[in-house]
Amino acid sequence: MTVEERPDPTVGEMHPQRWGDPAAAAPLSEAARGLVELAFGLEQRPPVAAPELPPPALGADLLDGLRALVGADHVHTDDATRRLRTRGKSTPDLLRARSGDLADAPDAVVRPDGPAQVAAVLAYAVERHFAVVPFGGGTSVTGGLAARREGYAGLVSLDLVRMKRLLALDETSMTATLEPGLRGPEAEQLLARHGLTLGHYPQSFEHATIGGFAATRSSGQASAGYGRFDAMVVGLTVATPRGPLVLGSAPAGAAGPDLRQLLLGSEGTLGVITSVTVRVRRAPTASAYEGWRWRSFADGVAAMRTLAQAGLLPTVLRLGDETETAINLAEPGAIGAAAGGAGGCLMVTGYEGEPATVRARRVAVTAVLEGLGGTPLGEEPGRSWRAGRFAAPYLRDAMLDVGVLVETLETATFWSRAPAVYDAVRSALTASLGEPTMVLCHVSHVYETGCSLYFTVATRQGERPVERWLAAKAAASDALLAAGATITHHHAVGTDHVPWLARELGPVGVGILRAVKAELDPTGILNPGVLVP
Amino acid sequence: MTVEERPDPTVGEMHPQRWGDPAAAAPLSEAARGLVELAFGLEQRPPVAAPELPPPALGADLLDGLRALVGADHVHTDDATRRLRTRGKSTPDLLRARSGDLADAPDAVVRPDGPAQVAAVLAYAVERHFAVVPFGGGTSVTGGLAARREGYAGLVSLDLVRMKRLLALDETSMTATLEPGLRGPEAEQLLARHGLTLGHYPQSFEHATIGGFAATRSSGQASAGYGRFDAMVVGLTVATPRGPLVLGSAPAGAAGPDLRQLLLGSEGTLGVITSVTVRVRRAPTASAYEGWRWRSFADGVAAMRTLAQAGLLPTVLRLGDETETAINLAEPGAIGAAAGGAGGCLMVTGYEGEPATVRARRVAVTAVLEGLGGTPLGEEPGRSWRAGRFAAPYLRDAMLDVGVLVETLETATFWSRAPAVYDAVRSALTASLGEPTMVLCHVSHVYETGCSLYFTVATRQGERPVERWLAAKAAASDALLAAGATITHHHAVGTDHVPWLARELGPVGVGILRAVKAELDPTGILNPGVLVP
């Protein structure tokens, strides 16, 4: 069925120096403030107000050319709009923005509507040799929006905000075709009108977009039940400088390499995703979330592995290590308060679906977890986690305000390597950052053969916090690669991870990426410096 | 854990003009013979005995060079060995071989042992510009072994028969690293020693190899329970003319495009797969197979869709259409005998696993199928299907012997398009082949969003059977592409499907394949003419 539906408006733009909805920002709770003071001391570090932008570099005729392609109302060069399209939301991004450095601002923000306008802008970019950075939600935490601009006539943020339609719905095949500019809640809103859901809830859900989910191989908090975003995609249309690419005539097949899997994760460097056809599910009519305590992280991880290898997963399955559990990061609003008080490691299990399915799955999972020595904590910890599931980035802003550097990094590996990867990353971070440093970890995505490891780090900002963090991140990245893990499970490559991607893929793998890039984007206008080593 | 285990010998070489184990060949049963006589008439068409081969084209010095690389005992130019490495096992392949045409025979069969020898042969192929055709089980049905030889010094069959080791086993992560030359039963034998299974049972299982499964994106009869082969692969090592490629440091990730998915399905055109790391499972300790009757194919397909979308699949799930059910193709040994006698469509459901899992899954699936109006037929039809699951290709030989052309083709599409694809392919085949023609169909691989459709065609050989079949196949391929399906769900591209692959991918997609090919195999020595348009 072809439809053409648009969502009602949801959240607005993010603050240029903070995460998320400016109205949702809040100072630290008393308990958290106490914890921070004890661990790191308090030092007020408010952001510089309304930092200056470099003047736009694009000439008037080039801007006129862009206006002719997308309409005069959809080419923006004002500071406010450009400021909101500058870099992403990693801690280095925020620290730079907070210190007043918005040097990476785009020269213009251009808003095409539909694949023809996207293609026209790309053709014009080739003709005039300006760089194009596709922009969805602006939530990159790996420098995915900080393209190189040397050698280009300028840098244009290709903002997909006008492309927010549900284009087609096939309730027999259970697929929906979505435009790339739809944010998570907008896509869910459109699907909910038909009783459907995508079930993709990354922490960036409220701001990130369908196009970004696909371009970065996003993975959501309910990945145990709904799968990674790349596993939901059955079709893609992509505008490339070589022309349009339309992929996906069957759920799976043997018609050569699966080129969908080459465009998924391409981070705007090979083309601009103009629509994504995703598998959808019936919206759940029941849910249950609960907590479990494990004596140790190793015990909890073993339980997750048992569930994954038995094909018996809840919809949400996550486990904090001893440190993360102790400071109660699963519940950002109550951080510093005791997490049930008994030590060990907190696991959250969540079930979504039909009432009968939720019940049956919960009974089966409960039997396994009890058999393995887990202690059920009832629904409260699950409910709390769920209520705060998108809140951690706001907490980071509040910590940055009082002089604490908070950042995350993540990886995935096979089960047998996970303990060594865990140790190696923690050691590298603490060795690089020095005391006082806290390293927290949780597992939130599992597979039959392995799992993700997600680390949260807190240390004093001190002098040169960006440089100190980048050194620590490099040490952690070296360590995890050496231990046999991937440089990223769901944060993508951006500019930050490029050197480690090159090592992970080796010279022949890098050669493949470069060859595909040269084929689809021969003049290199798409996100230069991102992804491709 | 690093291991180095080899299997005990299993089945021998296939007959050069027939499928499978020569000892397993059998004439038609009386019932089948009667059916064939009624439908098509009988006409003895025995194969030409020991057909002539063209003389090997490679010079003595080049052969000496190969001997220096892999050992003198592992370079073969005798007729018997070359004959067994000529083409694959499509009906046109067999008809040509039966008529005495072995013009596509390789000039030499070279058997490297290990990635270093494979790399050395590739380097030598670049230096001397001969074509290299990787050879596993020789079961291609799409011309995957019929590489182009014009412009090359000769054509070498790179037979991976010496590479049959289980290289590593990780029982924590449940992965095994297998060499490419292991046949299906050999791989299962090695895994069974550790209580494990791969669970991959394509019809070619007894002869096809691990490397071939990966290179062609094979899908097995138990795909509902164990998944497609490409979904089992977590790591690959590949020898390319540019050097080695090592992929897979985590089950899944966001480190750019998934290059594993570019090498899976690459059919020996981008490199030679030298090892495959696959997810394994505990060997099942219980199984149950049974039959169901559906009033119509549409009803049965709707039931399969319901199961797939409910996440409630048996290990094996297949459904014949009315014609396939009527002639009892699910049980090749009893073809022509009544299939339970009541018309409609036969579904086979099979369950494998722990006894409790088998029981619970069977109860749940049974409830759904009964609720949808399926009639349970008990275990006999399931047992019969299972007993004959690898037998159909032998039946084809027996049919070819009596003048009937039998061939298969397959596709996949989304559920909503399946009825139109089904109709379009049947119409195209019957219109092209004329009466008497029988077209049978079954669904044997399902996904949440769609399914495969597998057609079996029988018609008189008559004059010029190869040309008549190729015209019919072209008409069917045109029709299925027009109806929105893929040119192949699990038979791969080979040389036969290249023109349709080009249409399916479009010019930009073809450009990607060509660019990757040019990068990894710049002089085009690997399987020229296969896959890449």
Keywords, separated by commas or semicolons:
4 domains; 19 strands; seven-stranded antiparallel β-sheet; Alpha-Beta Plaits; 533 residues; globular; homodimer; Uridine Diphospho-n-acetylenolpyruvylglucosamine Reductase, domain 3; 18 helices; six-stranded antiparallel β-sheet
Notes on the structure:
The structure is a homodimer of 533-residue chains. The first copy, chain A, has four domains: 28-46 and 58-159, 2-Layer Sandwich (Uridine Diphospho-n-acetylenolpyruvylglucosamine Reductase, domain 2), CATH 3.30.43; 166-282, Uridine Diphospho-n-acetylenolpyruvylglucosamine Reductase, domain 3 (2-Layer Sandwich); 286-387, Alpha-Beta Plaits, CATH 3.30.70; 392-482, 2-Layer Sandwich (GMP Synthetase, Chain A, domain 3). In chain A, the strands form four sheets. Chain A has a seven-stranded antiparallel β-sheet, with helices on both faces. The relative contact order of chain A is 0.13. Chain A is 35% helix and 20% strand. The two termini of chain A are 41 Å apart. The first copy, chain A, is α+β, with helices and mostly antiparallel strands and 533 residues long. The radius of gyration of chain A is 23 Å and the shape is globular. In chain A, α4 runs antiparallel to α17. Chain A contains 18 helices and 19 strands. In chain A, a hairpin with a 4-residue loop joins β6 and β7 (175-178). Chain A has helices spanning 30-40, 60-70, 79-83, 91-98, 115-128, 184-192, 210-216, 223-226, 229-232, 260-263, 297-309, 322-326, 355-371, 380-387, 392-401, 418-433, 465-482, 498-520; strands spanning 2-5, 75-76, 108-110, 131-135, 155-159, 166-170, 175-178, 196-197, 233-240, 243-247, 272-279, 281-282, 286-294, 316-320, 345-353, 375-378, 404-414, 437-443, 450-460. Chains A and B meet through β10, α10, β17 and α18 of A and β10, α10, β17 and α18 of B.
